[in-house]
């Protein structure tokens, strides 16, 4: 993210940014006279241009300025809008609370609504809390055409701390190491989660990873540690099963506490018929790695959604490295190694990034299948020159054809091959990359090299890439 006015400072962080300008009468300090509000909207536009993930827009101000900002966001940016309203120093009636929530929906243009109310003393806490929760419920079922959006419902002060425990989404927290809280009544994440656990607000859920011959998987240890750190009462099991039918008949699958699954080989396709819905990425990739359990709003019964998060795990790290480089105009190439389900996810991610995928697999037919499904080219060899007219396709010629320039290298290399394969790039590509300038990446530059294996930590390919001076991405970053 580039912040204008900060000497070209670039914030490189995988964490999403919420950009807020909080005015004086909305629990902040920014001037809210006519000139102050005009300047505030100018600052919000700076946040928008900076590419922040979420823009907090106070809903109480000038309709014209608000509309202009929202139109700019809708036309040019992917930033999500959080409509907000804070009431400080006085209580609100239930009717007012309902109005604030609807106001924060910004006429159906907000992606989320945040309302923070005040309460005078403990005796009136329950009444104010009821008003907030009822307002939240009313807005969640607001009539079309306004979409249903997530709502944040909070009460200020110590008397309102219970609302922070009950609030389901995006609860603002403080941290034990901070010298003071940012808002009256703010709690730490540990305090909130511990209280939710004691109160039984959090229902224990059973999760697991489904696969076969997966004794090596670190997923149970990883998820177990995460649940413990976040004070979540959930469990995560290793489900080593030869066939999917064994799972479908099991108590684990049919238990009402079943919370979802990670899915790995060889079941990424076999489990698909048992889903109630498949995401667009699963339909395109033809494989899934996640079972999401939802509740059907009409029947109240559980609903199973198959999703594929592999492509996001590939897309995110590459996007952070490539940024707005020439991959965006469709002329940069990504060399994708392998022909299985993860290679399909890599091809989908490359396509979403605007890259031209070049597929190679030891079985040429699988590479051709990927090219037919996701576009790009399939090559039979990784040679620089095909050396004849026998119809053999090679990497050197595919790169030149993709870019229209001789002597190019891919902007990215994505290997989905097993670590045991010991794959390394051909020497000619190493020489071409090593002789190039970092400032010319993607033409005759150094590729970003991504190996999806997270065990072992270093593979021959990654060691080779580091020796070339390339940026490398390890498979563990897919989980960030």
From TrEMBL:
Pfam annotation, one family: Shikimate_dh_N
GO MF annotation list: 3-dehydroquinate dehydratase activity; shikimate 3-dehydrogenase (NADP+) activity
GO BP annotation list: chorismate biosynthetic process; shikimate metabolic process
PANTHER family the record matches: BIFUNCTIONAL 3-DEHYDROQUINATE DEHYDRATASE_SHIKIMATE DEHYDROGENASE, CHLOROPLASTIC (PTHR21089:SF1), SHIKIMATE DEHYDROGENASE (PTHR21089)
InterPro entries the UniProt entry points to: Aldolase_TIM (IPR013785), Aminoacid_DH-like_N_sf (IPR046346), DHquinase_I (IPR001381), NAD(P)-bd_dom_sf (IPR036291), Shikimate_DH-bd_N (IPR013708), Shikimate_DH_fam (IPR022893)
Domain Shikimate dehydrogenase substrate binding N-terminal: 209-291
UniProt lineage: Eukaryota, Sar, Stramenopiles, Ochrophyta, Bacillariophyta
Name of the protein this chain belongs to: Shikimate dehydrogenase substrate binding N-terminal domain-containing protein
């Amino acid at each position: 993210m580039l912040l204008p006015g900060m000497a070209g400072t670039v914030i490189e962080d995988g964490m999403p940014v919420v950009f807020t300008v909080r005015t004086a009468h909305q629990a902040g300090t920014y001037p809210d006279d006519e000139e102050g509000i005009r300047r505030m909207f100018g600052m919000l536009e700076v946040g928008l241009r900076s590419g922040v993930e979420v823009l907090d827009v106070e809903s109480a101000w000038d309709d014209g300025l608000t509309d202009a900002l929202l139109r700019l966001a809708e036309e040019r940016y992917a930033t999500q809008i959080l409509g907000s309203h804070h009431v400080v120093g006085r209580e609100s009636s239930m009717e007012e609370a309902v109005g604030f929530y609807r106001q924060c929906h910004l006429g159906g243009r907000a992606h989320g609504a945040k309302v923070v109310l005040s309460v005078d003393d403990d005796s009136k806490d329950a009444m104010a809390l009821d008003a907030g929760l009822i307002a939240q419920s009313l807005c969640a079922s607001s009539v079309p055409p306004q979409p249903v959006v997530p709502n944040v419902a909070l009460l200020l002060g110590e008397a309102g701390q219970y609302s922070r425990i009950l609030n389901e989404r995006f609860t603002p927290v403080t941290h034990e190491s901070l010298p003071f809280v940012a808002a009256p009544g703010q709690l730490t994440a540990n305090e909130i989660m511990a209280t939710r656990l004691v109160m039984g607000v959090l229902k224990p859920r059973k999760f697991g990873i489904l696969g076969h011959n997966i004794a090596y998987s670190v997923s149970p240890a990883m998820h177990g540690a995460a649940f413990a750190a976040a004070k979540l009462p959930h469990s995560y099991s290793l489900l080593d099963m030869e066939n999917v039918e064994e799972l479908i008949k099991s108590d684990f699958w049919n238990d009402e506490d079943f919370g979802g699954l990670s899915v790995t080989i060889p079941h990424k396709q076999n489990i698909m018929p048992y889903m109630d819905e498949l995401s667009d990425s699963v339909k395109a990739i033809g494989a899934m790695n996640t079972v999401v359990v939802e509740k059907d709003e009409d029947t109240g019964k559980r609903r199973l959604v198959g999703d594929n998060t592999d492509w996001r795990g590939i897309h995110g790290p590459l996007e952070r490295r490539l940024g707005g480089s020439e991959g965006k105009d469709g002329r940069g190439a990504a060399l994708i190694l392998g022909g299985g389900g993860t290679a399909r996810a890599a091809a989908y991610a490359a396509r979403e990034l605007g890259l031209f995928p070049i597929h190679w697999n030891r079985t040429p037919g699988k590479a051709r299948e990927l090219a037919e499904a996701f576009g790009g080219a399939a090559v039979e060899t990784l040679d620089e020159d095909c050396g004849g007219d026998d119809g053999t396709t090679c990497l050197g010629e595919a790169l030149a054809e993709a870019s229209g320039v001789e002597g190019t290298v891919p902007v990215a290399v994505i290997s989905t091959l097993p670590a045991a394969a010991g794959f390394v790039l051909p020497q000619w590509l190493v020489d071409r990359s090593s002789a190039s300038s970092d400032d010319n990446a993607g033409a005759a530059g150094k590729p970003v090299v991504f190996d999806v294996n997270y065990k072992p930590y270093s593979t021959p390919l990654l060691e080779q890439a580091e020796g070339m001076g390339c940026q490398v991405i390890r498979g563990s970053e897919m989980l960030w």
